[in-house]
Amino acid sequence: MFMYFPTNYVWSMAAVAALNNGGLIDEVDRACKPVLEASRNGDDVGTELLYASWAAVADRLVASAKDDEARGRRIGAGDKYYRASLYVSQAERLQSPEWEGRKAAYQRSIDLLLKHVELAGARFETVEIPYGEASLPGYLLHADPDVVVPGTKPPVVIQWNGLDSTKEMMYYSQFPQMLARRGISTLMVDTPGSGEALRMRGLTARYDTEVWAAACMDYLETRDDVDASRAGIVGWSLGGYYAPRAAAFEKRLTFVVAWGANHDWAAVQRRRVDREGENPVPHYWKHVFWVWNASDLDDFMERTQHMHLDGVVERIAVPFLITHGANDRQIPVDMAHRSYEQAVNSPKRELKIFDDPEGGTEHISIDHMAYVAAFIADWIAEVVPDIDAALL
């Protein structure tokens, strides 16, 4: 992985995510250079300085985009709003849950992305998924109508976050756009404990993710523009636990992808207590306590003790793809092998470890994300005809 900040993995991962999701190297350099010295003080110190530096680049882009709009240059303006949203989002992700500016920063990333979508004319809509007494916020990107078989409804992928990502980051990844070009729609969801669901609605995580999956499937079955009988699920990072767990128990799902295996997240937490492996975000323990509504470490460990896939992936009876980076510094690669070896009842299971010189060797293959996203999109496009045949 490109280490812009040589001693700071977490900050460098944000820079790489920006670059691999449509950021421009000049702008990312301008955002990072002012905080290069601060990065040497560890992950936690200086994150507000980092946000200010990235936000300054976003501010300049927004000012330029507004000038473009005034001149009728909608395409150029939309591109600038996209990158401004991306930079604000990556910087917001690194902040402490206690930072008073966090909600406003996150809302700004949403507003800028929606402005981009408006100007770009994307086949995109915001949606609300009923969930108990509340609802889960999501985005639905529609399949390209030119590649959908006439007279049919397109299949749909439910995409879920990990610990600290957002539905906006799913859109930035271009994975839903790749699926759209293959005739597949994507429902991007901020599940409890992530994104807007956590930040704006206070919805916290739980281990039994089939409850979220049921809510998503119930919602898809109300729509007449996707084929819910051909719905599958993709989860990245901690979603590598969330999505397989969902597919094991929510039998309406017809395929599942773990974009980065996460077979035993409870064990990962014990490693992090012992300071083994890299953290995904600064202020790590504050962040996970926030996600799980935990009062302290003991409470958090109790709430997450069931977060493993032993005795779970055996229940998966649909096609199952697991991808993992050989040099993942957060989740050991052996967890990918464990998920694959135990998924004995999947009719089509595949394990793909990305290694050098191919690339994609880091956590969720963030170092070569577009390459791996395309691999996953192609796998899904190849699996869907098998699902069609099974439904006949």
What do you see in this structure?
The chain has 392 residues and is α/β, with parallel strands linked by helices. Helices cover 46% and strands 12% of the residues. The chain has an eight-stranded mixed β-sheet, with helices on both faces. Helix 9 (210-220) crosses helix 10 (239-249).
Topology:
Blueprint: H1 9-20, H2 25-32, H3 47-70, H4 74-93, H5 102-120, E1 124-131, E2 134-141, E3 156-160, H6 167-172, H7 175-181, E4 185-189, H8 195-199, H9 210-220, E5 231-236, H10 239-249, E6 256-259, H11 265-273, H12 284-292, H13 297-303, E7 320-325, H14 334-342, E8 349-354, H15 369-391
Parallel strand pairs: 3-4, 3-5, 5-6, 6-7, 7-8
Antiparallel strand pairs: 1-2, 2-4
Query: How helix-rich are the residues, as a percent range?
Result: 40-55%
Instruction: Classify the secondary structure makeup into a structural class.
Output: alpha/beta
Number of helices: 15
**Oligomeric organization of the protein chains:** single chain
Q: How big a fraction of the residues is strand?
A: 5-15%
Number of strands: 8
Biggest pleated-sheet summary: 8 strands, mixed
Distance between the termini: 45 Å
Strand and helix order = HHHHHEEEHHEHHEHEHHHEHEH
Q: Could you tell me the mean pLDDT? A: 96
What integer value in Å does the Rg equal? Answer: 20 Å
Looking at the structure, what is the overall shape? globular
